[in-house]
Amino acid sequence: MTERFADxxxxxxxxxxxxxxxxxxxxxxxxxxxxxxxxxEAVLIIFGIDPAKEPERAREVHDSHLARARWMIESGYRHLxxxxxx
Length: 86
Description:
This protein is mostly helical. It has three helices and no strands. It has helices at 17-34, 39-47, 55-85.
């Protein structure tokens, strides 16, 4: 994992630069969940965080990015469409 990421993804109702930059990361986390992957395996592969060594951080990173991925899929994508129209 070479991509830089925050331990906690944004949680507001506005699209952020972080969201734009990490959209693919969100989709990877979401796809792993949808495919039934274990969250611990996903966080190790996607973020490079060993949940055995950093259990709290691993869970926080995974869960906050998954929550943001869901927001992007449910409503955040509209912000991307609006930005691209202008």
